[in-house]
Write a structure and sequence with these properties.
Layout lengths: L11 H6 L6 E4 L3 E4 L8 E3 L5 E4 L6 E4 L10 E3 L5 E3 L2 E4 L12 E3 L5 E3 L2 E4 L8 E3 L4 E3 L2 E3 L3 E3 L6 E3 L2 E3 L5 H4 L2
């Protein structure tokens, strides 16, 4: 679609906040240290069928800052058909004793994570990625955490690289 008024934005959360249903947020190269919103979530997606993807050749990293709330994900959506593509998302516990949440939590139906890296620097047992009913995780690296799915229908998990994580087969293949 057409560019949003105010673009390009200085951070990913501002672009997501300005988006509507069926938008794509294209993220350029660099590291984006995002501040949490009023609910302590770093990036809260409230539009259906929103995609966050990297610009051609860009390798963006999106991470929380030390202000993120306890157990708050870096990117959260309960909307259907949310997509995270070709980006690195890091949940980084920079303040000792904090329990930060997963890198990504997409619990809306038919959401997907593809060709991305989700990294959890925390050691608190929280899931690194959460995917909703009929979701897909494909061609991604899930590092140092765990991958869970929300209640509901099947989740497709294929062609991924899992390192230093917990993956409960019963959670996906029952």
């Amino acid at each position: 679609g057409d560019p949003i008024d105010g673009s390009p934005f200085d951070n990913v959360s501002a672009a997501v906040d300005a988006s509507n249903d069926d938008y794509t947020v294209v993220v350029g190269p660099g590291e984006f240290v995002e501040e949490p919103d009023s609910s302590d979530v770093v990036i809260s997606i409230t539009s259906e069928n929103l995609t966050i993807t990297a610009a051609d050749g860009a390798e963006p990293t999106i991470r929380n800052n030390e202000e993120a709330g306890d157990n708050a994900p870096v990117i959260k959506s309960t909307e259907p058909e949310t997509a995270i593509e070709e980006v690195t998302v890091i949940s980084d516990d920079r303040v000792e004793g904090r329990n930060l949440g997963p890198a990504v939590s997409l619990t809306g139906k038919n959401s997907r994570i593809s060709d991305s890296t989700l990294t959890s620097v925390v050691r608190n047992g929280n899931p690194n990625g959460v995917i909703g009913p009929d979701g897909t995780v494909n061609g991604s690296t899930i590092d140092n955490g765990s991958l869970n799915h929300a209640e509901g229908d099947a989740v497709v998990v294929r062609n991924n690289n899992f390192t230093g994580i917990q993956l409960d087969p019963e959670a996906f293949w029952t």
